[in-house]
Amino acid sequence: MIYTDSSNNFITFANDTGYYKISVIPGNFTLNVEKKYLKTLYDSCGGTKTFSSGKTYSVDVPYRVISNKKDIGSVITAHIGYVARRGFSEKYNIIYQNYATTTENFTIELEYPDSVTYKSSSLSPSSHVGRILTFVVNGIKKFESGKIALVFEIAAKKQLNSKIRFLCNTYSLANDLDSANNSDLLIQTVRASLDPNIKQSFPEGYVKTPVSKIRYHIQFQNEGNHYATRVVVVDTIDGRLSMNKLQMIGCKHPYTLRVEKGNVLIWEFDNIYLLPKSDGEEESKGYITFETPLSSPLQIGESVLNRGHIYFDYEDPLPTPFALVAFGSDPNGIPTITNKQAKISVYPNPGNQQFTLEGESVLGKVSVFSSLGELVFDKTIFTATESINTERWANGIYVVRFWEKGLSLKVVKQN
After folding, report:
1. Nearest to 337 by CA among 244, 410, 412
2. Counting beta carbons within 10 angstroms of the beta carbon of residue 235, is it exposed (0 to 12), middle (13 to 18) or buried (19 or more)?
3. Does residue 336 fall inside a structural domain?
4. Which of 216, 238, 239, 376 has the greatest CB tally within 10 Å of its CB?
5. In terms of pTM, does the model score above 0.70?
């Protein structure tokens, strides 16, 4: 349901009973049901209602279901977002939905990468051939949705920062009105460690092709020593994203969602009782996944930058890292090797507590960047040998840049 005045949009989602609840600023609003195959007839206010501050109103909004429409679709999501921890068993969901007004039977195929092992699923596959799981879903009524929970184990030897891809396809429906939602692609980056409070996007970083929509994943974890009764996630959305067409993809816990100031999303998890990490790894985590199109595609040089803030009970907010989507080339990208004659070595590699840089002459200016592009070391070295203490570095891949010698080398930090 969308409440609109001359300059603001407020969005609310119904709970399982069809009841909507939202807080809006005082003003005069029109109400619309944002669903493809529902048509609003009228409301009890005759189309508008003047809302006064501090008042509560009950508004009936009848609508008509457009009959004999066929439209199904599915998406694939991961509990941990767009990263996968190598060696771990990770949880995934196929979320399917009948968007239209006829009861349907359909088939879902999931193609998974060769670097993961299928462990289990909440719905038994009708077939499992090679790396393709096939699921048959029957009797899905109009506007009904459901999910298939899956577990895959990520190969312990999979290269760090490499990509793994899951492709989900929905079949077996003639005259589908919208085939664009029949396929979904999940791309994850293999990591060996993970910040518990993150915000990620798909696509992510600098991209070479036009972007028309962005999917976001926010993950949070209680690292305190007592359970959290209430968690609130606040996310200020870039003005180029269309709030009217925002779609929730997945969420681990029951929530309410409201919009303030036209572009501030607020998820409230009341009575969540999120356990501390010390009492259970999985029970200490929550996540939100949503998607929204851009009002117009990004042009070369344009970018969308967003971050969230997470509140546990009455504690200070925990900001997530920024999620960046930009169209064009990374102006701060690390150059590849340009001088293969430079005789420089970095050892041990992989390393634990330190790396040693060694060359035939003065090393000069040296910078080290993490896989996320963060500068973790920067120094001009006037000797041919230098040791770098890496005890405080996170596990992962780093790029060592020797500026005067035109050389970049990759090293791995691991315990």
Report:
1. 410
2. buried
3. no
4. 216
5. no
